[in-house]
Amino acid sequence: MARISFAAHPFLLGFEQIDRILEKTIKSSNDGFPPYNIELSDDNHYKITLAVAGFSEDELGITLEERQLIISGKQVEKTNQNTFIYRGIAARHFQKTFVLADGVEVSGASLENGLLNVFLLRKNLQPKVKTIKINSNN
């Protein structure tokens, strides 16, 4: 079965990259762990909060690749002498991917009380109008 892409429309030129990003995001996405919130504090400020109890700063990563914000966690299995009767808190890896619009930038991040906060800022992009001169080939 052929995949239908919004970028295949003849009036949308140069959007193939966005289509690839969306496809990658959907594939890699997000099995529900860790749980997260997305908040809008005003028209230009977003905050993504992930519940990452048990992860240290060294075990978390935030990268921006093109327009993809990738938040990942990889816990190091700690070797100790404890014998677990029940182990409900496992060292589980995760990766969350978010696609950011043009003009949205990561302004910072913090880890507090087991919550990772990633702060986003939407910059006001001014519309650009450019007149193209038509050259004759005489």
Description of the molecule:
The protein has one helix at about 15-30, and strands at about 35-40, 45-50, 60-65, 70-75, 95-100, 105-110, 115-120. It has about 140 residues and is mostly beta strands. The protein has a domain at about 35-75 and about 85-125: Sandwich (Immunoglobulin-like). A four-stranded antiparallel sheet has the order 1-2-7-6, with no helix packed on it. The termini are far apart.
Short structural description:
This protein has one helix at 16-28; strands at residues 36-42, 45-51, 60-65, 68-73, 94-99, 104-112, 115-122. It is mainly beta and 138 residues long.
**Ranges with pLDDT <50 over ≥5 residues?**
none
Instruction: Indicate the CATH architecture of the domain at 34-76 and 86-123.
Output: Sandwich
Number of strands: 7
Task: Name the shape in a single word.
Answer: elongated
N to C succession of SSEs: HEEEEEEE
Radius of gyration: 21 Å
Specify the CATH class of the domain at 34-76 and 86-123.
Mainly Beta
Strand content: 35-45%
CATH topology of the domain at 34-76 and 86-123: Immunoglobulin-like
Order of the strands making up the biggest sheet: 1-2-7-6
Structural class: mainly beta
- Supply the number of helical segments: 1
Mean pLDDT: 84
Outline the biggest β-sheet.
4 strands, antiparallel
Q: Between the first and last Cα atoms, what is the distance in angstroms?
A: 50 Å
Q: In percent, how helical is the residue content?
A: under 10%
